[in-house]
Amino acid sequence: xxxxxxxxxxxxxxxxxxxxxxxxxxxxxxxxxxxxxxxxxxxxxxxxxxxxxxxxxxxxxxxxxxxxxxxxxxxxxxxxxxxxxxxxxxxxxxxxxxxxxxxxxxxxxxxxxxxxxxxxxxxxxxxxxxxxxxxxxxxxxxxxxxxxxxxxxxxxxxxxxxxxxxxxxxxxxxxxxxxxxxxxxxxxxxxxxxxxxxxxxxxxxxxxxxxxxxxxxxxxxxxxxxxxxxxxxxxxxxxxxxxxxxxxxxxxxxxxxxxxxxxxxxxxxxxxxxxxxxxx
Length: 280
What we know:
It contains 8 helices and 7 strands. The chain has helices at residues 18-29, 55-65, 80-94, 117-145, 166-186, 211-215, 224-234, 245-256; strands at 9-13, 33-38, 70-74, 99-102, 148-153, 191-198, 267-270. The longest helix has 29 residues, at 117-145. The model has no long low-confidence stretch (mean pLDDT 95). It comes from Amycolatopsis deserti. Keywords: NAD, Oxidoreductase. InterPro entries: NAD(P)-bd_dom_sf (IPR036291), SDR_fam (IPR002347), SDR_subfam_1 (IPR023985).
């Protein structure tokens, strides 16, 4: 389906690469003006680089190439003042804000009994507090406009538990609760809040060599292909392997469009049928 977002202004956090970059490009292709932010720092406990020099510039280039007018902002979602500054820059430039996608997130795999306090705190701060800060910064402008759509990016593990990932899972469960609470608060102002729950998506968050020893601790020769085969057998009901970020962007576009104007407080799973294994 083609979505027409002409005249809309969209804001994506964590847009420097991965799913955030995909969302930003998708908005541009749909006709929206696109702002995105990303963080240029690092964390010593993630198995992948949070960003690289040139990531923000590359997303800006790709958004422009997709036909969108782009505003790239360096900002840390853990800071409410920085998110309010980012929204202020967007409104100063374009006079409105119609869509906000709270996408920024990190992951680092450690079992609960070994997780360092800072590792826990960083993950909660980015993945959950960052979503709150995005909603808190964007919602006053949307209330003033009497309309808007906010999408929080949760995860399929925001509905189930798995080993070696307590902070990430806790944060993503929290995103769903936050989205539902925000939908109740903002609904009277015609501001909708929903969540997308991606599954096994091919980005550097999982494509970094961390998963084979976690899935197969007794097999030092396990590969990423072994992990994908296991996921197709034990997790997915559609044996699709690693999904592209564009599959998530399709759901984000739907929830950002007028076609979903009466959908709020809901979640959409993009996980090749993993949802069939959930209780609800």
